[in-house]
Automatic annotation (TrEMBL):
PROSITE patterns from the UniProt entry: GST_CTER (PS50405), GST_NTER (PS50404)
One biological process term in Gene Ontology: glutathione metabolic process
Name under which the protein is recorded: Glutathione S-transferase delta-epsilon 2
Domain GST C-terminal residue range list: 89-218
Species in which this protein is naturally found: Pseudodiaptomus poplesia
InterPro entries according to UniProt: Glutathione-S-Trfase_C-like, Glutathione-S-Trfase_C_sf, Glutathione_S-Trfase, Glutathione_S-Trfase_N, Thioredoxin-like_sf
PANTHER family: GLUTATHIONE S TRANSFERASE D10, ISOFORM A-RELATED (PTHR43969)
Domain named GST N-terminal: residues: 2-83
Keyword entries, A-Z: Transferase
Short name of any one Pfam family annotated for the protein: GST_N_3
Keyword hit for Transport: no
SUPFAM superfamilies membership: GST C-terminal domain-like (SSF47616), Thioredoxin-like (SSF52833)
Domain of life: Eukaryota
């Protein structure tokens, strides 16, 4: 089988979801850098792969697709040797899907609303409303892992957790923020990290790069 071609950047949490999924599945892949800051996502070569010009996107043989969580579901469905990553039990799958949609629409969104105005010059640094929203969202996540399980109540990591662990690593990379007091979420995070092959390369380092970028923008060392 030819390697999966991933297009993205390490600092992007959605791109890290796809890399972590490939690692969990033991898939061969190439990571092709698409530098958003240099406008590479708007070049014809990339638009031919993903006309919506966001990252990540993948090419698997003749098949091209974007949207990180849809990519993760596709890879797990096509290449998973069992259903641990994307459980087939209808209720468990519904909860895993809920965690992924929640990440896209709520957690990753709340992180973006918090960080992006300062990083991309579209407004002032986050205020109290964004801070409070992120704390509220983290409180919901905390509730889902309070029994020492993964996010869908399973004993092994499914896609929902891979999705949520990506922005969580970003928050960790920004480290100086006083956003959460929860030991429970940190315990979930630390328990999951060693279960993800090459964790540092495929998620941890990207969070640190993001953190460095954010801090440079808001003038924090
Ligand atoms: N829902 C998409 C969001 C991807 C996304 O937000 N990508 C950002 C970088 S983190 C991007 O490519 N922005 C540039 C653009 O949309 O043109 C996914 O999960 O794949």
């Amino acid at each position: 089988m030819a390697p999966i071609e991933i297009y993205g950047m390490q600092l992007s949490a959605p791109c890290r979801i796809v890399e972590m999924t490939c690692e969990m599945l033991g898939l061969e892949y190439n990571f092709n850098q698409v530098d958003l800051m240099a406008g590479e996502h708007m070049k014809p070569e990339y638009l031919a792969i993903n006309p919506q010009h966001n990252i990540p996107a993948i090419v698997d043989g003749e098949f091209k697709i974007n949207e990180s969580r849809a990519i993760a579901g596709y890879l797990a469905h096509k290449y998973g040797k069992d259903d641990t990553l994307y459980p087939k039990d209808p209720e468990t799958r519904a909860i895993v899907d809920q965690r992924m949609y929640f990440d896209m629409g709520v957690f990753y969104k709340a992180c973006g609303d918090f960080f992006y105005p300062a990083m991309f010059g579209k407004g002032n640094p986050a205020g109290e409303a964004e801070h409070n929203r992120l704390k509220e969202v983290l409180g919901w996540l905390d509730g889902w892992v309070s029994g020492g399980k993964y996010m869908a109540g399973t004993d092994s990591i499914p896609l929902g957790d891979l999705s949520l662990v990506a922005p969580y690593a970003t928050l960790k990379g920004v480290e100086f923020l006083d956003l959460w007091e929860s030991k429970t979420l940190d315990a979930w995070f630390e328990k999951g990290k060693p279960k993800i092959p090459n964790y540092g390369k495929v998620n941890g380092e990207g969070g640190v790069i993001f953190g460095g970028f954010y801090k440079s923008k808001v003038g924090v060392k």
